[in-house]
């Protein structure tokens, strides 16, 4: 998942390789460690989508390959590709040659959240480390050390983060509650079979959110569906994704059944897959929500 420390670990590895003060570890304070932390070390480069771009291009990979073949100032040449799953197909194919015959004294670190979007031949040539969501209790401890949130706010942020300390740290609780209520209200309208004009006006507002990506908006739908399934198990069930909206979720749960939730989830899966083929977001969301009516 996002925000669980993958880049932090990659940078820590780079610091351990270049640290002036310790062996096989990093002090975090020496000149090399400090330069890596601030992104100013000549032997450590992060490759990510260029400003305004959604992909890592073949040009970026070829430039990285040239740099890896240069003599290192200290230690080894290190390239961190993050997120690796945003390399386009040409970039991935170009990277294969480097992975097969890496330059001497070089290290390649690939970071991503979607291994399936990377070529199997790339994955098979890498030593893989898998990250899992952080337990809510640990996320709360993380927030306590870094924020001024009240205990109840820390607990809520930890649950809403999905096990991502990074997401919890950047979460705007008021904005999150507003968006999740908008999703619940939209689902309630669709289930009730209200006029399409009103429903499509609501989907337009969600699709055009400036502060949240469309993918994150879809994640809110998934979170509601998860809680609807939990509620269907009985009155004492927990709401792992929206604990602060229990009344609204239970109200919607009384209007739908388990089969509706499963069908709605499959529809959301289809929309998410079609987004990779550049389907119109607004049109896709309109079509999905229009199918939710139980009348």
Detail the topology: elements first, then pairings.
Blueprint: H1 6-18, H2 31-38, E1 44-47, H3 58-68, E2 77-81, H4 89-100, E3 106-110, H5 120-123, H6 136-146, H7 151-160, H8 165-170, H9 173-192, H10 196-207, H11 214-231, H12 246-253, H13 258-275, H14 281-290
Helix pairs in contact: 1-2, 3-4, 6-7, 9-10, 9-11, 10-14, 11-12, 11-13, 13-14
Keywords:
14 helices; mainly alpha; about 55% helix; about 300 residues; 3-stranded parallel β-sheet
What can you see in these coordinates?
The protein has 295 residues and is mainly alpha-helical. A three-stranded parallel β-sheet has the order 1-2-3, sandwiched between helices. Helix 4 links the parallel strand 2 and strand 3. The longest helix is centred in the middle third of the chain and has 20 residues. The two termini are 37 Å apart.
State the end-to-end CA separation: 37 Å
Strand order, sheet with most strands: 1-2-3
Structural class: mainly alpha
Strand runs, count: 3
Radius of gyration: 23 Å
Largest sheet: 3 strands, parallel
N-to-C SSE string, H for helix and E for strand: HHEHEHEHHHHHHHHHH
Helix percent reads 40-55%
On the 0 to 100 scale, the average pLDDT is 90
Estimate what percentage of residues fall within beta strands: under 5%
Instruction: State the low-pLDDT regions, or none.
Output: none
Tell me, what's the shape? globular
Briefly characterize the structure.
The chain is mainly alpha-helical and 295 residues long. It is built from 14 helices and 3 strands.
